[in-house]
Amino acid sequence: MVARLSSSAIALGWLVRLRWHAALGQALTVAVATRGFGLRLPVLPLLALVATTAVSNLVLALWLRRAPTVRPALLGGVLSFDLLLLTGLLALSGGPANPFGMLYLVHVTLAALVLGPRWTVLIGLLAVLGHASLFAFYVPLPEVTGVPAGGTVASLHVLGTWLAFVLTALVIVFVVARVAAALKDRQEAVVRSQQFAARAEKLASLSTLAAGAAHELGTPLGTIAIAANELESLILEEPHEALEDARLIRDEVERCRDILERMSARAGRSLGEVPERTTTGAVLARLKEQLGAAELARLHFDAGPEELPLVCPVRGLVQVLANLVRNGLHASDETQGIVTVSARGDAERLRFMVEDHGTGVPRALLPRLGEPFFTTKPAGQGMGLGLFLSQTYAELCGGRLELASEEGRGTRVTLELPCRTEAVHVAG
Questions:
Q1: Is 133:87 a contact under the CB 8 Å cutoff?
Q2: CA torsion angle for 129, 131, 137, 141 (degrees, to 10)?
Q3: Can you identify the CATH homologous superfamily of domain 273-428?
């Protein structure tokens, strides 16, 4: 399940980290100004404001762990509170003469990045009013008692201005880059979630279609089966050819039932099964049981140097591999080429690969493979559901399905799965 974090929650998380650094930087700045440069500042009030930042940030961090849903108003309130604290710090340390007034820009930048126009305007106005208030209410900087040798008060102010500019630029770059990266990750997660929901919806529709077909065809097929059995008993003394026709009808009815059951399983039931512990060799063995003798004659199995363990919905996996194998066999019907089925992996991921040397797929059509009802097979020979369901199975198990093909040289399909996956549930 994809976590749905709002942009405000992401920004508030980074603001909490930034406020810890800010509190530490403020305390260090007070220490350097008083101890290093000998400035006579009201240390206790300054440290009280720094402590207020730290304590409020601790409360905010604890609250954020319990309440992941964050409204923009909370982020705007925190930024407004920080503006008041910054104004207090500057008022106690020189007011408009303090070069660290540039830090107002950090709050305005963050508001413009993640908040709406109204909050951005409000934060901007508060920053302007805060800086303007420094001209009326501030504690002037006293004379410096210890200026470095060869230095002057003017040079010290220039140095402070440069340091404030560098610090402000670095903080803005850091905040914008990290928040933008987090928002990009969130956007990608939302896109993946939407794609997953769209596939699940299509899969549910296919499941409903399969269930409806099974329900509608079950009764007439049952009637045909009964009629075929009665026909067999009535014509025991009739020519042998009629008896064979009756048995053929019965066999075809059973075949139709099997097809409907497999269709229904592929549409959803196999994807809702409980994962089982198995190995790659056992999966390939069960795959062989699903295939006919003519199909097995054109297959080459390569289980690798050793069997690898995995935990997954085994029935669904075998059905997916059977679909991929039959696609490969169909693609190489003209050449009667061999289709290779192999398994490789490590302690974390497994890869089942099905490779044929058939006609291949044009490069322009590759992106569309996996769409429901899109197929490169001739009309009447496929509905394009096999790859769609295979890709859905892979995604639901936390894996992926990759196709590589070159026209005229064949296709390689790679099904990559984690060695252990949770139970998979699909509507339908």
A1: yes
A2: 180
A3: Histidine kinase-like ATPase, C-terminal domain (3.30.565.10)
Q: Dump pLDDT digits (tens) for 133-173.
A: 888 888 877 655 444 444 455 566 666 677 777 877 887 77
DSSP 94: T
Rounded CA-CA distance 337/335 in Å is: 5
What 8-state DSSP symbol labels residue 348? S
The domain spans of the chain are 7-194, 273-428
DSSP 419: S
Whether the CB-CB separation of 60 and 16 falls below 8 Å is answered with yes
Q: How far apart are CA 50 and CA 317, in angstroms?
A: 59
Sign of CA dihedral 135, 138, 140, 146: negative
pLDDT digits (tens, 9 = 90+) for 248-274: 677 777 767 666 665 555 544 444 567
pTM: 0.44
Name the token pair of 16.
């909490």
Are 80 and 15 in contact by the 8 Å Cβ rule? The answer is no
